[in-house]
Amino acid sequence: MPEEVLACLNCRPGRVYVDCTLGGSGHARAICERILPGGVLIGIDRDPDAIRHARGVLGPLPAEVHLFRGNFLQLPDFLAQLDIVAADGILLDLGISSHQLESSGRGFSFKRDEPLDMRMDPDSGLRAGQILQRSSAQELAQLFKQYGEERWAGRIARAIVAERQRQPLTSTRQLAELVSRVVPRRRQASHGRIHPATRVFMALRIAVNRELACIESFMSQAAEWLNPGGRLCVLTFHSLEDRIVKRQMKYMASGCVCPPGLPRCACGHRPAMRLLHKKVMRPGEREIRENPLSRSAKLRAAEKIEERPGGPA
Ligand SMILES: C[S@@+](CC[C@H](N)C(=O)[O-])C[C@H]1O[C@@H](n2cnc3c(N)ncnc32)[C@H](O)[C@@H]1O
After folding, report:
1. Which atom of ligand 1 is nearest to the CA of 120?
2. With a 6 A CB cut-off, is 93 part of the ligand 1 pocket?
3. DSSP-derived secondary structure letter, 152
């Protein structure tokens, strides 16, 4: 949804924008083209490949670009390093990049036989294979159920624990074949057209990268990192991610959040943001036809409220 994202960000010359999830730099490049003259783009990604790629794509552009390898939760540190107090637009395009999926060699996809790594930042945290090796059957079942909404979570988890007693699970093919064996053949149709291992791979990736905790924490602070009138745009591809974004945006846009029935407000909560759209934005039929992966995309955006003495506008 590139046009919708750019419209929501309201890119203007001379302002400061942050792309927290550079990936292939498609959005970052489009932002750079819209903020000239004088605009600043801060690009962040925890994957060193994304930063290397961004140098090539954004380097030749005439905009002022600052690239940081790290977690988007480090945004306040990066702003401080640049002596910037706050941004005029922040974009999060969550999930994995096509490079990570197709060619990183880090085991995000079951389509090729690769080591079971799945770390976006290949220098920190546990690999997917280590999680499979160390977790109990109960923990694995919970992980597949919670993050992958996998119907056969318990059965798959028990099979993993049995298999690892024979040999460690270290490759994507081993895991994909195990899941295919375990999910009852006649039931594989209930997975629709998707491969039976799709949900397990997605759940593992979310766990390895602590994706939901990062979003939760970012969303609870994002308003502080925006100038008044600044925009926050979040593109998600997973219902659990969207649920967090929806809830946090609603909270930021709310006034009093006291339980009903109190005679007087005790929370003092004031809206910090204004929602840009009543309903979530989804890709149109044409985009879905041209790019079937966009099917599950959801875009939400909010604008920081200009504070006036005595309360919000
Ligand atoms: C869907 S891709 C972004 C695609 C990008 N918008 C484009 O136009 O090509 C998501 C990117 O976000 C990065 N990412 C995910 N979570 C992150 C986090 N917590 N901190 C920094 N980068 C993160 C991933 O490494 C990946 O490169």
Report:
1. 25
2. yes
3. T
Q: Tens of pLDDT along 30-75?
A: 999 999 999 999 999 999 999 999 999 999 999 899 999 999 999 9
Query: Has residue 76 been placed in a domain?
Result: yes
Last-in-domain residue among 191, 208, 225: 208
Residue ranges making up the domain that contains 302:
2-99+211-312
Token pair of 300, please?
Answer: 């939400």
- Host H or E run for residue 66: strand 64-69
| Domain shared by 226 and 308, yes or no | yes
The verdict on 217 and 89 lying in the same domain is yes
Q: Is 131 in the same domain as 61?
A: no
Answering whether pTM is above 0.85, one says yes
Residue pLDDT, tens place only, 105-148:
999 999 999 999 999 999 999 999 999 999 999 999 999 999 99
Domain tally, the chain: 2
Distance of CA 309 to the CA centre of its chain: 35
Distance 154 CA to ligand 1 centre (A): 31
Residue 148 CA to ligand 1 centre (angstroms) = 20
